[in-house]
Write a structure and sequence with these properties.
heterodimer, A: 5-stranded antiparallel beta sheet, 6 helices, B: mainly alpha, 0% strand, globular
Amino acid sequence: MLTICRKASGTVTALLALSAPAFAHPHVFAEARLDVVVNGDQVEALRHLWRFDDLFSSTVLIEFDRNKNLELDQGELQEVAGVVHESLAEFNYFQIVTANGKDVAMQAPAELIADFTDNQLIILFESLPKEPIPLEGTVAFGVYDPTFYTAIDFTEDEYMAVENLPPGCSRQVIRPDPEEAIAQNQETLTEAFFNDPAGNDLSKIFATTLEITCDANG
Amino acid sequence: MRMASAASKEPDVADRKTAGLFAASLFAGMAIAAALLVPAAALAQSSLGIGTAEPSMAPAGPFAGFLQWVNAEQQRFYRALTGALKAMRDDGSQLWLLIGLSFAYGVFHAAGPGHGKAVISSYMLANEVALRRGVVLSFAAALMQAVSAIVLTGVVFLVLRGTAISMTDATRFLETASFALIAAFGAWLLWRKLGPLLLRGGRTHSLSAAHAHAHPHCDHAHDHAAGEICDSCGHAHAPDPMRLTGDRLDWRAAWSAVAAVGLRPCSGALIVLTFSFLNALWMGGVASVFAMAAGTAITVSVLASFAVMAKDRALRLAGGGRLGARIHAGIEIFGALLVLILGLILLAASLG
């Protein structure tokens, strides 16, 4: 009986595996740089730069090259920027900002700038918080695509930079180990899934994060 | 212990109970999996608005660890693949490296996301028993996907470039068509499974080859309530018209599944092809995509075989009696239902 049960459960496992949640992997890679602009003791803006991989960039080139000159000229680049701008709105421009664990609302960037150099698409934009974020306790910034379509990589810790970091504050880049993150957040993950279509919680778990920590009276 | 009895033709009551439990957990598992796909499919369109994402899912549930590993490997291969492509741009002798990497990418890609595997496996549950046919179907579907990607990229590159129709539009069109076909196919499959059942008032009747097994206890001694027909035998003893044309029908069904699944090219293939064509690496791109298809087909074959083996085992545990017939019919109906549900979910996501 035991053997049968074990065999049966093995088969169920195998079956489950084949219809188990499909998990997309990124098809687009971007090397990113984030500049956090601090004025006094407040965060005023986040400046993003994403440099996309050659393959995705060539897809963009083919799709938007209206005049077939195998180059993206100004009008075509503007169109690229427009499409990306519009699509990212749904995902808060891949930004996750928290102040002492609480979500901070960000404004939609006024514009996105697209550029094409060395066969690579570059996207630039600046996003402002709805209200300036006071630097007290821990303020954290992450950039992540909750749909897993784009892998945003900060290859060096220095690429998450702070301009005018006040004395008494320190910055730290945290890179969660995805496997550990999953193990620790098993329940939250399932819940996040059903309650959080935009994937904000997922991003919090997986994103490479820049933390600025300041003394309370610093 | 009881291993021998599992394989014997006359399983005892305990084994039947096991089979019942087994079937119940099987269905529960699949229902959970189907439910998990619902929020997932909501993410089917790409977050950047350029290119198409695959219907995706966060790594949760009991397979998170495995899927995470698959995901990490996929990313590694994808990066290696893009590296090989870039290298080929400068040095044509990198072709074999590219083909090898594409093959490996295909193997891992199919183990992760993708509707093809789910649809083919569900179809195998609903309708097929022959392993060989499952393998043929998997290869046909993967091959069709490769051809679809090559034709699409070719047309976009040579004809549609510069027009208002972008690759993203064209892919979305194919995607919607493919998902609609899958839903229609599931509905048709379900009708074929349920139709005879409804029309003949509850007689279970399976069209698949699993029915070739013997029924030594048709002249059995177990009790029937007054007026009850030999329900446990479950199958028509005289060949019915559906039965005679069954094989031909099944092949037609099988090819419909292949067409429905294969119509939608995979995003990775499109990206690789676009890059190759742009850099005039025609041969390299095409070879890479076929190598990917071969890898994908192998994984999907393995998974489809699991589906068949699981179904087979459930049936053997259940024995040939009334329970067996019911479980058989149940599995097939569930498989058909799963194809339909998958199709509808994917369709809703791609239209949304």
